[in-house]
Design brief:
Elements (H helix, E strand, L loop, with lengths): L37 E4 L2 E4 L17 E5 L4 E4 L5 H14 L4 E5 L5 H4 L10 E3 L1 H22 L13 E2 L3 E5 L2 E8 L6 E6 L4 E9 L11 H14 L7 E6 L7 H23 L3 H6 L14 H24 L4
Parallel strand pairs: 4-5, 5-6, 6-7, 11-12
Antiparallel strand pairs: 1-2, 2-3, 3-4, 8-9, 9-10, 10-11
GO molecular function, one term: hydrolase activity
GO biological process, one term: antibiotic catabolic process
Family: Belongs to the metallo-beta-lactamase superfamily. Class-B beta-lactamase family.
């Protein structure tokens, strides 16, 4: 279904510099995520996940979720990695706002974007069409994988894909312009939300900050093209906050630049390694540049990305050699 909401602007009192994120007070014994919502701009809130890899210690909560407060109601963005997260997210939102939730958005098909949907089944839940298809096809596998990784945090979690197909474009939003932008590359359908008047961007999985990007559904060339398109779309925007799905919120494009740097480097490494005839084990043993050494989820994400992506580069390199062989 197409989405058209009349969105207004909530009040915002704090002045001065944007506060740093409060650390989540995760209580493993009580299975409490310790969610700490904070306001990043007028009408915009974020709940930041751990800048880590999935683990029992963080309850598989490595995702940034959030919501937009309007005069008519709330727009919730991402629902977290489990039913329990979705329930605690909803309770945190209801403590801070008495307005109804008009719409829930899942920005892509990955599990921590939508496995909390069970807590929101009485509200419209939307995503891009390709994301919904992916949730339906892979949801059960996501459940099983996160149960193995995070155990009791996942009790009662069953995948509930979004049901409403979101159409990209501008929404009527009172005195401000709120845009849903469809891009791709991190997955086949990547949804980005831009508040052009408040200068807030929910960039979804296209942008990572201080963390190695994940690539289970990635097309590196398409992802790089989408980063270029997003940066062009934001040109002239008075950026107040760019919210990646993984990593700290910042008031600049440094997360986008970091993501581009990693993807360009990774693509070049895979291409050159294949042309040299290196096998998978040899590529995995190559050193990483110092500038990436402190990023979260190293070396796990490098290993996963190379293992998944490198065979295609090997096939392409072999094809090039074969094509150039005299007959």
């Amino acid at each position: 279904m197409a989405l058209a909401l009349l969105l207004g602007l909530g009040a915002w009192a704090p002045a001065g510099a944007q506060p740093a994120a409060a650390p989540a007070r995760v209580d493993v014994a009580r299975l409490d995520y310790g969610l700490q919502p904070r306001q990043i701009a007028p009408g915009h809130w974020v709940i930041e996940g751990a800048v880590e890899d999935f683990s029992r210690a963080n309850g598989c909560n490595i995702i940034n979720t959030g919501w937009i407060e309007t005069q008519q109601g709330l727009l919730v963005i991402n629902t977290g990695p489990s039913r329990r997260y979705g329930q605690q997210q909803r309770a945190a939102i209801e403590r801070l706002s008495q307005r109804p939730v008009l719409q829930v958005l899942n920005l892509n098909l990955h599990p921590d974007y939508f496995l909390g949907n069970q807590a929101w089944q009485d509200r419209p839940i939307g995503a891009l069409g390709g994301s919904i298809a992916g949730m339906r096809a892979e949801g059960k596998a996501y459940e099983d994988n996160l149960f193995r990784l995070c155990g009791d945090w996942m009790q009662g979690t069953e995948h509930q894909p979004a049901t409403g197909v979101i159409e990209p474009g501008f929404w009527p939003a009172g005195s401000r312009r709120l845009e849903l932008l469809r891009l791709d590359g991190h997955t086949a359908d990547d949804l980005v939300l831009i508040d052009h008047d408040q200068g807030v961007v929910f960039a979804g999985g296209l942008v990572f900050a201080d963390r190695v990007p994940t690539t289970p559904h990635a097309n590196l060339a398409r992802w790089l093209a989408s980063l270029d398109a997003l940066e062009a779309r934001l040109r002239g925007l008075k950026l107040k906050a760019l919210v990646p799905s993984h990593g700290p919120v910042r008031a600049d494009l440094s997360g986008l630049a970091q993501t581009r740097d990693w993807l360009q480097w990774l693509e070049q490494r895979l291409l050159e390694s294949a042309q040299r005839g290196l096998d998978l084990g040899e590529v995995l043993r190559l050193p990483l540049p110092e500038r990436f050494a402190a990023w979260a989820a190293q070396p796990a994400e490098y290993i996963r990305s190379v293992t998944q992506l490198y065979p295609r580069y090997e096939v392409e390199a072999l094809g090039s050699v074969t094509a150039g062989t005299p007959r």
